[in-house]
């Protein structure tokens, strides 16, 4: 049990770190996007490669932030169908949705792994004014996807065991 608690703690710390990195990258994309707009409109010269870099970073931001959003319950929840269910039915619905989420994220992570591997294999670069390697971006996005799989699986394991998920706001 002590090992599981340690793994749980480690996953939560890595997930939080991913969120902090995603937040920092989002700030960077926002500032650079604004600088690009100002540069384009005032100086009539866009920042080379900004569109391509922003696109690559947005994928990284989404996948790095997804695990923490799931852990905090900050993702979108449509509870019209479950708001009138009893505790047992809510638990079964949560197990079902977490199982589907885990499978879905695992498929995405698996495909992201293949894409990152191919990008490294062929030294893929961005098409545009500034050719930069995209394999590191795909690799970090892939890491974020697997981190999300781990978070979904963590929550599923807690629900299956009937244990309250630490930090869960709507656990019955």
TrEMBL record:
It comes from Flavimaribacter sediminis. It is a multi-pass membrane protein. Its main location: membrane. GO terms for biological process: C4-dicarboxylate transport. The chain crosses the membrane at residues 49-71, 92-110, 130-149. The keyword Cell membrane applies. GO terms for cellular component: plasma membrane. It is found in: Cell inner membrane. Pfam families: DctQ. InterPro entries: DctQ, TRAP_DctQ. Keywords: Cell inner membrane, Cell membrane, Membrane, Transmembrane, Transmembrane helix, Transport. This is TRAP transporter small permease protein. Part of the tripartite ATP-independent periplasmic (TRAP) transport system.
């Amino acid at each position: 049990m002590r090992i599981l608690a340690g793994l749980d703690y480690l996953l939560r710390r890595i997930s939080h770190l991913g969120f902090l990195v995603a937040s920092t990258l989002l700030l960077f994309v926002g500032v650079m996007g604004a600088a690009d707009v100002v540069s384009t409109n005032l100086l009539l010269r866009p920042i080379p490669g900004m569109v391509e870099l922003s696109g690559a970073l947005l994928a990284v931001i989404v996948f790095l932030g997804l695990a923490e959003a799931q852990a905090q319950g900050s993702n979108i929840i449509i509870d019209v169908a479950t708001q009138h269910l009893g505790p047992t039915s809510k638990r079964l619905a949560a197990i079902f949705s977490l199982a589907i989420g885990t499978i879905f994220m695992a498929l995405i992570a698996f495909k992201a792994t293949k894409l990152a591997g191919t990008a490294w294999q062929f030294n893929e670069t961005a098409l545009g004014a500034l050719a930069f390697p995209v394999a590191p971006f795909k690799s970090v996005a892939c890491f974020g996807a697997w981190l999300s799989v781990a978070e979904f699986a963590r929550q599923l394991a807690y629900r299956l065991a009937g244990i309250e998920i630490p930090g869960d706001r709507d656990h019955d």
